[in-house]
Design goal:
The protein has 437 residues and is α/β, with parallel strands linked by helices. It contains 14 helices and 13 strands. 35% of the residues lie in helices and 14% in strands. The N and C termini lie far apart (66 Å).
C-alpha cells in the first residue's frame, strides 16, 4: 500500500505539471548573450480533457513586475501567431533590419517595448495557430466563441500556476481580428468574477488597435481612399450615389450595373497599393500563408536589393523552424512540423461579426478601454473605428484634438505599434498611468 500511494502521487503530480507547464528561456539563438528580460514559454491545457494545448510566451515587466499591470495579448488573423506581437509590435526584441543573405537571423533589443511598464502573455489562439495544437481531431475544430472560452480557461489556469500575479491589474489586448474576441473575453472574465469563479481576476479593461468590430466597417474603405486622394471626388460621389453607401459585393444587387462598374473603377485605382499602409511599397503578400520556408527564403534572395519592412516576416520562418530555436523555446517535439506565421488552414468558424454591444456593456460597467487606429491603414480604416465609437453614444469629456509626440504623429499602419513604436509606447504608458494622452 505504501508503494502504491507513492506511485499514484507521482502520476498525479506529473499530470498536473503537464496540464500547465512553463519554463524559463535565458538564451535565444540569434541574440547576443543572455536575454536582458525574463522570458517564460509553456503550454496550458484547455477544453474537454485538456485536449487543446495553448502555447504562450510570457515576458515579465522590466520595471516592477510585482505591481505592474499584466496583459494577455492576442494577435489577429484569425490564425496569426502571437510571435507577431512579440517580435514586430510591442515586445523587447526584434529582428535586425537586414536583407536576408542566407545567414542566421539576428535579434536585437528594442527600447520601445510595452514590457517596460507591463508584463505580457502572448498566446497562440485559436487552436492551430503558431505552436498551439490539438491532441484529437475533434479538439482541432473551434469557433470564435470557443476561442473566447478557451482564452478565459487559459487565464484561470495560468493564474493558478502563477499566483504571484493574481493581484496585478489585468488587461486584455490585441489588434485587427482580435477586435472580435477581446471584448467577449473581457465580458467572460467580468461575468466569472461576478459569479464568484476562482481565481478572482483583477480585471481593469482592454486595449485594441485597428480592431475589427462590426460588419459595415469595410464600407469605410471607400471614404478612406477618397480622403487619401486614391480616388477622385467625382468617383467617390458616383459610388455613394449608385451604391447608396453599401459597397460589400454580397449586398449589391446583380442589376445594379452602375454600382458594380464604379467598384471596378475603384479597384483599378487602388491596384498595387499596400492596404496595411498605403504609403509603403507593395512588396507582395505579407501573410506568406503555407509557403515552404526554404522556397520562400530562396525567392527573397532573388528579389531587388531594396529592403521592405515585410522582409522581417520572412526571417521569422527561418528562425522558428530551426531546431535550436525550438529547443530553446521548449517546443514539444512532434506537435508542429512546419511553423507558419499566419495560416488560413484552420478548422475555425467565425459566428460573430458585431461586438459593439460588448463594448457598450463593458463601458457601462466601468471598465477602461484604449482604442487606437493607424491613420494610413486601409484594411480597417480609422473612419470605421470612429463610427462605431460614436454609436456607443458616450458622453464627450474631452474635445477632439490632434495627438502629437515630439511635434508630430502621422504614419500609423494596420498593426500600429509596428510602424510607430516610440509614439505608441508613449501613448500606452500615459494611458496606464491615467495621464492625458
Amino acid at each position: 500500500m505504501y508503494w502504491l500511494l507513492i506511485i499514484i502521487f507521482i502520476i498525479c503530480s506529473h499530470a498536473s505539471t503537464y496540464a500547465t507547464s512553463g519554463r524559463r528561456v535565458e538564451y535565444l539563438p540569434g541574440f547576443q548573450g543572455p536575454l536582458p528580460f525574463y522570458l517564460e514559454t509553456g503550454y496550458v491545457g484547455v477544453d474537454t480533457n485538456e485536449d487543446v494545448k495553448l502555447f504562450y510566451y510570457f515576458i515579465q515587466s522590466e520595471s516592477n513586475p510585482e505591481h505592474d499591470p499584466l496583459l494577455l495579448w492576442l494577435t489577429g488573423g484569425p490564425g496569426c501567431s502571437a510571435i507577431s506581437g512579440l517580435l514586430y509590435e510591442i515586445g523587447p526584441i526584434k529582428f535586425e533590419a537586414l536583407h536576408y543573405d542566407g545567414s542566421f537571423p539576428t535579434l536585437i533589443s528594442t527600447p520601445n517595448s510595452w514590457t517596460k511598464m507591463a508584463s505580457i502573455i502572448f498566446v497562440d489562439l485559436p487552436i492551430g495557430t503558431g505552436f498551439s495544437y490539438a491532441r484529437t481531431t475533434r479538439a482541432s475544430f473551434s469557433t470564435d466563441i470557443q476561442l473566447c472560452e478557451q482564452a478565459y480557461e487559459f487565464m484561470r489556469k495560468w493564474f493558478e500556476s502563477h499566483p504571484e500575479f493574481i493581484s496585478n491589474p489585468f488587461y486584455i489586448a490585441g489588434d485587427s481580428y482580435s477586435g472580435i474576441p477581446v471584448p467577449i473575453i473581457t465580458q467572460l472574465i467580468s461575468d466569472g468574477n461576478e459569479a464568484g469563479n476562482e481565481p478572482y481576476i483583477n480585471l481593469k479593461g482592454y486595449v485594441l488597435g485597428n480592431p475589427s468590430t462590426f460588419p459595415k466597417e469595410s464600407n469605410y474603405k471607400i471614404r478612406f481612399a477618397n480622403g487619401m486622394g486614391l480616388i477622385s471626388d467625382e468617383l467617390y460621389k458616383s459610388l455613394f450615389h449608385t451604391c447608396r453607401g453599401e459597397y460589400r459585393s454580397e449586398h449589391i444587387s446583380v442589376g445594379n450595373i452602375g454600382c458594380r462598374r464604379n467598384l471596378e473603377l475603384y479597384q483599378e485605382c487602388i491596384d498595387g497599393i499596400e492596404p496595411s499602409h498605403v504609403l509603403e511599397p507593395h512588396c507582395g503578400s505579407i501573410w506568406l500563408i503555407n509557403l515552404p520556408t526554404q522556397k520562400m527564403l530562396n525567392e527573397q534572395r532573388t528579389v531587388s536589393s531594396s529592403y521592405c519592412r515585410t522582409d522581417g516576416y520572412k526571417l521569422v520562418y527561418y528562425w522558428l523552424n530551426d531546431a535550436s530555436v525550438r529547443e530553446a523555446l521548449h517546443i514539444r517535439k512532434g506537435t508542429i512540423t512546419e511553423w507558419i506565421r499566419c495560416t488560413s488552414d484552420l478548422n475555425f468558424t467565425e459566428t460573430l461579426s458585431d461586438v459593439r454591444s460588448y463594448h457598450l456593456n463593458l463601458g457601462n460597467k466601468g471598465y477602461r478601454s484604449l482604442i487606437y487606429s493607424g491613420d494610413h491603414d486601409m484594411l480597417i480604416p480609422h473612419q470605421s473605428t470612429q463610427a462605431w465609437v460614436k454609436d456607443l453614444n458616450y458622453s464627450v469629456i474631452d474635445q477632439w484634438r490632434s495627438w502629437k509626440l515630439n511635434g508630430t504623429q502621422r504614419g500609423g499602419g494596420h498593426t500600429t505599434p509596428e510602424y510607430k513604436p516610440e509614439e505608441y509606447v508613449a501613448m500606452f504608458k500615459r494611458w496606464l498611468s491615467n495621464q492625458p494622452l
